[in-house]
Amino acid sequence: MSINVARPKLTWSERLYLPAIAAGMAITLRHFKNMLFRRTKVTMEYPEEKWDSQLPEHYRGAPALVKDESGRIRCVACQLCEFICPPRAIKIEPGEIPAQDRFSKVEKYPREFDIDMIRCIFCGMCEEVCPEQAIFLRKDYAITGLTRAEMVHDKEKLLEIGGVMHGVVLKWNEKK
Ligand code: SF4
Ligand code: SF4
After folding, report:
1. With a cut of 50, which residues of the chain have pLDDT below it?
2. Of 37, 110, 126, 148, which alpha carbon lies 20 to 30 A from 134's?
């Protein structure tokens, strides 16, 4: 069923449009003047200017894998994060650590570890569920790529973003 909406009755001055245009121009001029005198900063000139130094500690950016101080990848390929990830952005292929390796009691390591950043919703569930404190949401937010394939972060890329975590890691930031 269609509904006819009655046209509003415009006054003489509204039909002239000029007062509305003048009011709009006055607002624009006021903002322009404030900007000239640096009283207001309307936009940040990204990417030349960035907000990075002011990001809070609990900022949730791109998820990444971390190594410990001895250079070992903390992840033990338990796949809990893959299971919990709501948009199924994580894909892990576990590998077995050889018996003669000094970390053989860990049993598994991630042979492949991919996170599809097109799917990732930065929820932090992977970080919360990880029993090894191996995956963290870092401060990187400028995730770009020209193809879908470029938007999939592989193990090397994840380790590059993640870096090294020393000692016991404080994972449970109450603000997260
Ligand atoms: S932050 Fe959330 S969506 Fe992104 S990989 Fe982790 S669990 Fe998946
Ligand atoms: S990152 Fe953590 S939860 Fe995910 S597979 Fe590795 S150890 Fe398991």
Report:
1. 176
2. 148
Q: What is the DSSP string of 2-24?
A: --PPPPPPP-HHHHH-HHHHHHH
Residue nearest to atom 7 of ligand 2 (CA): 75
Show the domain range for 107: 57-162
Q: How far is the CA of 141 from the centre of ligand 1 (A)?
A: 14
pLDDT attached to residue 176: 47
Question: Tens digit of pLDDT for each residue in 90-124?
Answer: 999 999 999 898 888 888 999 999 999 999 999 99
Structure-block tokens of residue 122: 């930065």
Handedness of CA 74, 79, 82, 83 (dihedral sign): negative
Whether 89 lines ligand 1, by a CB cut-off of 6 Å, is: yes
- 84: domain CATH number is 3.30.70.3270
> What is the residue type of 151?
M
Q: Tokens at residue 80, please?
A: 């809990």
* C-alpha 85 to ligand 1 mean position (Å): 5
Rounded to the nearest whole angstrom, what is the distance from the C-alpha of residue 87 to the centroid of ligand 1? 7
Say how many domains are in the chain. 1
